[in-house]
Here is the input.
Amino acid sequence: MEMNDNCSNCQASFQPEPGFYFGAMFISYAFTVTIMFVGWVILYFTLKPTTNVYIYSFLVSVLLATPFSFRYSRLVWLYWFGGHKRLS
Here is the structure.
């Protein structure tokens, strides 16, 4: 069974344009920078750790946030710049 090319109700295309994923990458980058900044603030003002602790904590936090970032970066990009209008 294949996916339909267009919505049967509103004729919206289910095939995003190539730039869609490129733009969502910037939203994902912003999520990652925010996660790392919040982690830095928490670590800096509570523990004052060494550089290795920063590196490992950033790696773990970004890896754990990857599913969130992957899904919601595309969702945010679609809502801001998708160009679909709500049906009345």
In short: Residues 19-81 form one domain. DSSP finds two helices and no strands in the chain. The radius of gyration is 18 Å.
